[in-house]
């Protein structure tokens, strides 16, 4: 069916690296396994209300994809939304009912996607992590100002942790019915690294609970010299 294989084996790493340069001032990524994620109104006054709204948004999106492509919702695997100043890229996995999609089914799905009902088709390839699955990327407009909301979060994290906004790196968000989970890099200043006292200071800032009541902080295994912060909102 003329499909190419995706060149990356880890979807989170792929999303972060592929768009790190393209998104000029912020990269916000939402990763979904199963059906628990969302991408709108994430910085509402109540984190619980925001989580419920986000979860409902992605349930709606999965239903929309299922209806448009004529497949079951259980055939929609992970879903990711990459938010930038110029719009949102929606990326998702399609699972075959049996071992593989046959050529006719791939052609049918691609034709539906090219019609643009879900948004302009950006990419359509085999998904490397799941044998037989397809990986779809479409572009949509940012009607709900998600980009601006994540600028706000970046500002808040910068203020609470006592670092510059430029030191808040990629932000990954998982949304469940009862909580938001923020994972983000804290980058050292150029030409330096975090000392133990820096680590302790940022830990103390997280302990205030201003970003969320539960947290984890560790040295990043992906970005040399950076810290990997995770905050649970409930």
Taken as a percent bin, the fraction of beta residues is 25-35%
Strand ordering within the main sheet:
4-5-3-2-1-6-7-9-8
Note the gap between the termini. Answer: 45 Å
Radius of gyration: 19 Å
- Which structural category fits the helices and strands? alpha+beta
Largest sheet: 9 strands, mixed
Average pLDDT confidence is 78
Count of runs of 4 or more consecutive helical residues: 5
**Regions with little confidence, pLDDT below 50 for 5+ residues:** 8-28, 33-44
The H/E string reads: HEHEEHEEHEEHEE
Helix content: 25-40%
Number of strands: 9
**General form:** elongated
Textual characterization of the structure:
The protein is of the alpha+beta class and about 230 residues long. It is about 30% helix and about 25% strand. It has five helices and nine strands; from the N terminus they run αβαββαββαββαββ. The chain has helices at about 10-20, 45-70, 105-115, 145-160, 195-205, and strands spanning about 30, 75-85, 85-95, 120-125, 135-140, 170-175, 180-185, 215-220, 225-230. Strands 4-5-3-2-1-6-7-9-8 form a nine-stranded mixed beta sheet, with helices on both faces. The longest helix has 23 residues, at about 45-70.
């Amino acid at each position: 069916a003329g499909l190419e294989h995706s060149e990356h084996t880890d979807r989170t790493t792929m999303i972060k690296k592929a768009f790190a340069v393209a998104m000029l001032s912020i990269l916000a990524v939402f990763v979904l396994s199963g059906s628990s994620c969302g991408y709108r109104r994430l910085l509402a006054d109540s984190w619980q209300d925001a989580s419920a709204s986000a979860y409902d948004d992605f349930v709606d999106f999965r239903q929309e994809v299922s209806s448009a492509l004529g497949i079951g919702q259980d055939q929609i695997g992970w879903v990711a939304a990459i938010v930038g100043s110029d719009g949102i890229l929606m990326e998702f996995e399609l699972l075959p009912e049996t071992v593989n999609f046959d050529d006719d089914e791939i052609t049918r799905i691609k034709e539906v996607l090219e019609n643009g009902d879900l948004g302009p088709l950006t990419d359509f390839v085999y998904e490397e992590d799941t044998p037989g699955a397809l990986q779809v990327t479409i572009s949509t407009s940012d009607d709900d100002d998600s980009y601006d909301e994540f600028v706000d979060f970046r500002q808040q994290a910068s203020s609470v942790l006592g670092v510059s906004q430029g030191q808040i790196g990629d932000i990954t968000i998982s949304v469940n019915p009862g909580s938001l989970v923020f994972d983000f890099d804290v980058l050292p200043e150029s030409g330096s690294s975090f000392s133990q006292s820096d680590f302790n200071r940022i830990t103390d800032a997280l302990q205030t609970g201003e970003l969320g009541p539960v947290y984890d902080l560790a040295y990043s295994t992906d970005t040399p010299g950076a810290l990997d912060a995770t905050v649970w909102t409930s």
